[in-house]
Amino acid sequence: MGKYESLAKEIVKQIGGKENVSGLTHCITRLRFKLKDESKANDDVLKNMDGVVTVMKSGGQYQVVIGNHVAEVYADVCPLIGLDEKAATAASEEEKEKTNLIDIVSNIFQPILGVMSACGMLKGLNALFVALGLYTDAAGIYTMLNGIGDALFMFLPMFLGYTSAKKFGLKPMLGLAIGAAMCYPALQGSTLSAAGEPLYTLFSGTVFESDIYMTFLGLPIIAMDYTSTVIPVIFIVYFASKCEKFFNKFIPDLVKFFFVPMLVLLVALPIGFMIIGPVSTFGSMLISQFVFKIREFSPLLAGAVVGGTWQILVIFGMHWGFIPVYINNMVTLGYDNVMMPFFGCTFATAGVVLAIFCKTKDKKMKELALPNFISSIFGVTEPAIYGITLPMKKPFIVSCIVGAIVGGFYGQFNFRKFFAGGMGIFEFPAMINPDGTNGNIIVAIIGAALAIVLAFVMMFVVYREKETAPEQASEKIEAKPEPVQQNGLLKKEVIASPLKGDVLPLTECKDEAFAMGILGKGVVIIPEEGKVVSPVNGTLTTIFPTLHAMGITSENGVEMLIHIGMNTVELNGKYFTAKAKQGDKISVGDVLVEFDKDAIAAEGYSIETPVLVTNADDFLDMIETEQKTASYGDTVITIMR
Fold this sequence. Notes:
Elements: H1 5-14, E1 21-26, E2 30-35, H2 43-47, E3 54-58, E4 61-65, H3 70-80, H4 85-88, H5 90-96, H6 101-109, H7 113-131, H8 140-154, H9 156-168, H10 172-182, H11 189-195, E5 200-202, E6 210-216, E7 219-222, H12 231-250, H13 253-297, H14 299-315, H15 322-332, H16 343-359, H17 363-377, H18 382-392, H19 394-412, H20 439-462, E8 485-487, E9 490-496, E10 501-505, H21 512-515, E11 521-527, E12 531-533, E13 538-543, E14 549-554, E15 559-563, E16 576-578, E17 585-586, E18 591-595, H22 597-602, E19 609-613, E20 621-624, E21 629-630, E22 635-640
Antiparallel strand pairs: 1-2, 2-4, 3-4, 5-6, 6-7, 8-9, 9-22, 10-11, 10-21, 11-19, 12-18, 13-14, 13-17, 14-15, 15-19, 16-18, 20-22
């Protein structure tokens, strides 16, 4: 036990004893208890106890506010309630895994966005050069560039296997091996079906009818093509990560190095090929059948459904359910009009990205938007979806809305494609009716133009700079606040704003402990951007492991606390990225932490950020700014010595 043993014992006693505690964590100032019965806690006794600042109840937690030495008190409390640090935070670690699927997919794609965009542009430029007659599609340069551009998309499960493994805590090389197995030619449905007759058929007479060409230990493998797919590998790697944790518990350390990976592959991949992959495909088949039924009722409505949901289906890899329908229509009818309403989505994405490029002042975003616009025009939208529109959410919603509008237009006018080939603008020749009429190609061009214009205008209107994608690079914010100055008999030190946003008096903070000034004096800032920079020259004395709060000491002894959001310790570091480490010497404008404020708010947490001087009583006076807004470097607090 440490020097706060007596205080720890009294706290445990007054909260109802260790039997009343179901969990405990702490942030930079508070012990956060989960009590079985809060009525058993003696609030008044705790509030008046030496060593306790106050007691608060929020978010299902019983919070005992201690101050900056909370970690030492926490260390003395844990043994008294029968918890070690790992056990006390176990529940929070489980909650850390709870995140929505779109965010997971977006994060998994971010590491490969640059090369994905490059490959998309190569494919588009290759098609452009052929169309301009610089060379033919039989030339060696065409084959080379097409292979380079296609490689990532064809072997996408390998890349996603690696990034998914890093996301889910699986050894990355295992994820890569899983992705490679899913691209192995002999296991693809097209290869198996070309090799001979099926052994038998499952689900005959239903939409799930599947020919079985091979078995595994007598169990049927439903053959699918997994190259270029997204969701199956993510799900399989997630399952494999759970397998790895399970096997690590039982395999002796002596053979764990090779035995655990072997068992993970042996369990995860067969189950993936037998269950996870087919279920994904069956889901897409149900969607295509659903669209058929709608089309029988209203072509306009069916087109709107396809156009509005196409990008969502692409994200989840479920658009492949339309491919058999598309091919069958091409062979039997000589055209396809069921899948083709998706065509407007390509140009809706291009219009959205172009609007962002034109309106943003952020250099990094411009550099990202321009190649993604070009790639989208050429028919490769994945870089734009995973790199810009999906992480920012609002652009993705706009593109889906425009896709639905243009899809409805295409459906109503029976828009068709007459032969396979081409992407984006190079797909137009395939829409010229063989009978010599121009009606269909005119519909195609009008729809594409409508998609670009509508998406551009809508995005231009709703775009706000604060929605910048989370991957943009951090830069040092240049600011020059006044140093400590001699002014007669007084010394003045100014504190620069560590955030850009609206400024509120501390008394308006939603958190009682902050609003009462118990933890220090200062202001509250509602951030417009997810970035905290140093407000002084000094030292980053404390940065909490969950990155939501930090302590700073200036060169002249001003001690500060910056607390990003309310109760954000519960996120366990999700949506936060450290740009500096504890003990670093820092200067005004150095970026300390970046955070995704929109994601934090979407989780239900307030993003108001107290900026406090915790040793304000050491100084003659402290003056808070009266300005309603502040940018990086603006003076928000003035210290008089």
